[in-house]
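QUALITY CONTROL LOG
STEP: pairwise intake check
CHECKER ROLE: data steward
CRITERIA: each record must contain a sequence immediately followed by its structure tokens, with no blank fields

ENTRY 1 OF 2
RESULT FIELD BELOW
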Amino acid sequence: MGRWRTRRGHIFFLTQLIGPTGKVYAFEPDEVNYGYLLRNINEHSLLNVVPVKKALAGKTGDAVFSMEGSLGSGVADCLPHVEAYQLKTVQAVTIRDACEQLGEVPKYIKMDIEGAEVEAIEGSLEFIRKQKIHFVLESNHRANGEMTYKALDRLFAKIGYDVWSSDKFGQMFTWARPPAR
């Protein structure tokens, strides 16, 4: 789940990792980026990708979204700056509700939602604890006065996940996995 580039990028490689019987759910509420997503799916025959024209968020319902038509689009409340002309109301869904609507719970979630990662995790924290989902999150955003990786580290630790954040690959990412039992 997350945002994907228009060339053979993350989405292509994720489909290769999971094989033909797995599924990638790609959430993208930005109209321009959704068009790129559909073109990417078609161009590369990604038959195991399910496009979802919704935002992942901390609560299900309407959300004001900045339609930038780039990788910087996002939930307006979580972005450092937005232009009024770019704002549009979109459907938003929590991780828990997305799983319920899609009829399955993923084993892995890759998320880059421009600073809304903390709210998305908070909005489904108890569900995540019970479901044992693995995460990789782009966490180099500023939200509520701190970098998102710090809040994500605390949230995942709170539910007993093994969590670590690193900028080893040129930007900050947070990895979280359920505790081994």
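ENTRY 2 OF 2
RESULT FIELD BELOW
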Amino acid sequence: MKILFAGGGTGGHFYPLIAVARAIRKAAEEERIAKIEFFFMSDDPMDKNMLLEEEIKFIQIPAGKMRRYFSWQNIFDAFKTIHGVVRALGELYLLMPDVIFSKGGYSSFPVLFVARILRIPVVIHESDSIPGSVNRWAGRWASAIMVSFPESSRFFKNKRVIVTGNPVRLQVVGGTDVEAIQTFNLEENIPVILVVGGSQGSEPINEIILSLLPEMVKKYQIIHQTGENHYADVSGRAQVILTNSELKHRYHPYPFLKEGDYRNAGKIASLAVFRAGAGSIFEIAAWGIPAILIPLPHAAQDHQRENAYNYARAGGCVVLEEKNLKPHLLLSEIEKILIDSERIQKMKSAAENFYHPDAAEKIAREILKLGVHE
């Protein structure tokens, strides 16, 4: 059976695809499906090494962004999209996968456009509360539609929609406190704040953390994923800021946390300070820890803001809008949560109730069912 994945090159699309691929392998073994071949078609591989490890063949095709505002780039990107459709037509005609699983995003459009022409069955999954334009379009004719948030269902009228939650890699859940303490060289019994501004980092969040470092290290340990492009600047400035601090060892910046380190960080963290991508929210929920979410302003369809407030209504987080965010407001919210044991327990319970541990398995079995029937 040949299964093709499509989606954007961001972590919010890429890592759920990896979680589903792993679940498909497991389900295929249980169903005694002899051979599964995986392919990933996109403009950006995100993590080539992980694709190699998972035995997923990457097929690169161009794709242009579809902006909702005037830009000269729209003209060039229109040609990139046309080129992508032509390339996808040739690749898919030769490959002819049994089923396509798409996470949406502009880079999935050429694949889905051709899939409709060639009548290849398509399963789509929408991570965010407000679906992107590509998934809304594909939802009119896709063979199966799945969503992370129940609120997304209303955008797919007259269609059967399955609420699965967002697939989370099992490899980022679990771990032990002992392993985490050793991995990050942490002190015992000092609260840990995990700060992640998305897979590529967030400059505004980095700046706020840097401005708070002298105060934060007095009470907390900070594990901070800065983003690859920001690491040198952030870590260098942090050394200067904490030069005279006896507690500078409590700050732990990393350009990017690999699966094992990410799992341990989530295990040991007392509180998460994150952007509000769906993938991040469901990872926090899987860890069962309180969170402060700072939605990315101007995200497409304002989906991060909707994600954050949906999770807040469930009781799992506090939302701070970036436009209103001041360093001491963030520190105040951290302290208000961590001194209130009853509130911590309520937020943990809300997180655990929000998480769907079987999301990847549900999606995997739907994909296999379509692939076998077709």
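INTAKE CHECK: passed for both entries
DESCRIPTIVE NOTE, ENTRY 2: The first strand starts at residue 2 and ends at 6.
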